[in-house]
Amino acid sequence: MTGRLLLIRHGESTANVAAAAAEAGGAEAIAVEARDADVPLSGLGERQAATLAQALRDHAVSDAHVFSSPYRRAVQTAQAADAEKPVLVLDERLRDRELGIIDALTVLGVERRLPLEAERRRWLGKFYYRPPGGESWADVALRVRSFLRDLPAGEGTAVIFTHDAVVSVFLFVLLGMTEDELHEFLRTRPVTNASVTVLARSDDGWRVDAFADASHLTEVGLPATEHPGNARADV
């Protein structure tokens, strides 16, 4: 398996902005403009993504294998970072977690429109709750394990453009975390938009060399936005 992973969350998306506005305004539904796979970057997200070109040069990834979620916002981020050369491989296993029946609902919307689902989620917990038609975090872990098995062998680097939940699950899988350890780790460590998480493998296993590093954003005066992404109705 590859010896180093750079996990990059996409830049801020228009759905991130719409979700934040809906939550702040006490709305039950989020005014998304497209299906999840087609949601584009916001104007700020495009500027965030452009800063990743220098971040990748700083990480010396010119000969890396580059993969992306096929979702538009992730592909746009990879393209803005000039990471599609020589080849950008799209892999559906890197897509965002699917929320099924609770997609495009706020936390309040789930409580009011689907109270039994809200109660079931509280009973099962965030990691194992699977909304009808959607996925649990454990389901995403199966996708990540499958993807890791197919990575090229050797000590090279893989750059992966994906989503906040998927970045989190990579840590869960490679660091051998428990459900509670992952929850505690993420409680005060958001995977911010256009951030870079670096995992490296040694004889002792995997370690985190950087988590949600957004220094490339702050250097040019851009905010490291903390939109919870596809977890919005799952908090």
CATH architecture: 3-Layer(aba) Sandwich
Main sheet strand line-up: 3-2-4-1-5-6
CATH class category:
Alpha Beta
**Could you name the ranges where pLDDT drops below 50 across 5 or more consecutive residues?**
230-235
What assembly state would you assign to the polypeptide chains in this entry? single chain
Proportion of helical residues: 25-40%
Number of helices: 10
**Structural domains: how many:** 1
Strand content: 5-15%
Topology as a string of helices (H) and strands (E): EHHHEHEHHHEHHEEH
Indicate the radius of gyration in whole angstroms: 17 Å
Question: Strands, helices and their partners?
Answer:
Layout: E1 4-9, H1 14-24, H2 43-50, H3 52-58, E2 65-68, H4 72-80, E3 88-90, H5 107-113, H6 115-124, H7 137-149, E4 157-162, H8 164-174, H9 179-187, E5 196-202, E6 205-213, H10 215-218
Parallel strand pairs: 1-4, 2-3, 2-4
Antiparallel strand pairs: 1-5, 5-6
Helix pairs in contact: 2-4, 5-6, 7-8, 8-9
Descriptive terms for the model:
single chain; 235 residues; alpha/beta; Rossmann fold; six-stranded mixed sheet; 6 strands; globular; disordered C terminus
In short:
The protein has helices at 14-24, 43-50, 52-58, 72-80, 107-113, 115-124, 137-149, 164-174, 179-187, 215-218; strands at 4-9, 65-68, 88-90, 157-162, 196-202, 205-213. By secondary structure, the protein is of the alpha/beta class. Mean pLDDT is 93; it is low at 230-235.
Structure description:
This protein has 235 residues and is an alpha/beta fold. The protein is 38% helix and 15% strand. The protein has 10 helices and 6 strands. A 6-stranded mixed sheet has the order 3-2-4-1-5-6. The radius of gyration is 17 Å and the shape is globular.
